[in-house]
Design a protein that fits this description.
By secondary structure, this protein is an all-alpha fold. The protein has 11 helices and no strands.
Length: about 325
């Protein structure tokens, strides 16, 4: 949910650091491997309950993970030959190893019940399988989804930025790591479900038509068939989202949803500050914070889908 905003905010600083690292002997792949080793070391220190050292190593590994991409793009822009696909593969693999090992390290270090951490790993597995499978099939089909990363995939509720925050909270509040893991497993599970549904719906759409080159002997190639247009009645019965759009303009709804997202985010931050100040980190309280996080996200997602549907479907009435 936060990855796009985080990448936009950190793009400038990371590019400047990448410029400082643009030296012979420093390559994007070496930064990736160093980030992998640092993350695994953080998992080991977490297993030994050295929480502040684990936190430092975890954040350092994520910083290195954020620098390999800008350095690779900088080298590519300068005309330096690179193996971007191999680097992207190594980066994704390293991320999964670090994420999984850190969950195991925290579970061992806390000495609490393993069940919530096992559920986190299960949710990671399902979430990763969904977006990697979608990425592979979508790029083979030529489905245009470009998010600036080596592998393009559908966004979700739980992404890299949220993972950095939650894993850091485990180190800062190890006594409540189990409760945090319960909430986090639920959030990642929702994200996995969202990606499965969105990916399936996206891949069910027809392939984008291939533009044929005109033959000088026969003239331009006629179109394959008329564009698919649906009546307002067909739209009204297709999905609840489209029925809602028959009542309100998509653009207006999207604007309202963005306002709701801002208000919901502020309320979430206030609630989190209140929780930290009170010291009440019980499971019901954490679930309430998670609910405050989910509600504005859902509203914003519906607004975004609404505006996209209005822009994409010419049969959508503008009322």
């Amino acid at each position: 949910m936060l990855d796009t905003r985080a990448r936009r905010a950190l793009a400038g600083p990371l590019d400047r650091v990448a410029a400082l690292l643009d030296r012979p002997g420093i390559t994007p792949d070496r930064l990736t491997v160093l980030g992998l080793l640092t993350g695994v070391a953080g998992a080991v220190t977490a297993a030994r309950a050295a929480w502040w050292i684990a936190l430092g190593l975890w954040l350092a590994s994520r910083l290195l993970d954020g620098l390999d991409g800008p350095l690779a793009r900088r080298r590519r822009a300068a005309g330096t030959p690179d193996d971007g696909d191999a680097g992207g593969f190594l980066d994704i693999t390293a991320d999964f190893v670090v994420y999984g090992s850190f969950v195991v390290g925290v579970a061992v270090g806390t000495g609490a019940s393993m069940l919530p951490f096992l559920l986190v790993l299960l949710a990671y597995y399902a979430n990763g399988a969904a977006f990697l499978a979608f990425s592979s099939i979508a790029e083979r089909r030529g489905t245009p989804i470009d998010d600036g990363r080596s592998l393009s995939f559908l966004g979700g509720l739980a992404e890299g930025t949220e993972t950095v925050i939650v894993h850091s909270l485990w180190c800062i509040l190890p006594g409540y790591a189990g409760q945090i893991a319960w909430v986090w497993a639920a959030i990642v599970g929702i994200s996995a479900t969202q990606r499965v549904i969105a990916g399936h719906v996206t891949l069910r759409r027809p392939h984008p038509p291939t533009t044929a080159q005109p033959d000088s002997a026969t003239g331009p190639t006629p179109p394959v068939g008329p564009a698919s247009r649906r009546t307002a009645a067909e739209l009204a019965w297709s999905t609840p989202l489209e029925a809602t759009l028959l009542i309100c303009r998509g653009a207006t709804f999207a604007t309202a949803s963005r306002i709701a997202l801002v208000v919901g985010t502020v309320l979430t931050l206030v609630n989190q500050a209140t929780v930290i100040a009170s010291g009440d980190l019980s499971a019901p309280t954490l679930l309430r914070v998670a609910a405050n996080y989910l509600i504005p996200y859902v509203v914003s997602s519906i607004g975004y889908l609404a505006s996209c549907r209005v822009a994409r479907d010419p049969a959508m009435p503008d009322v």
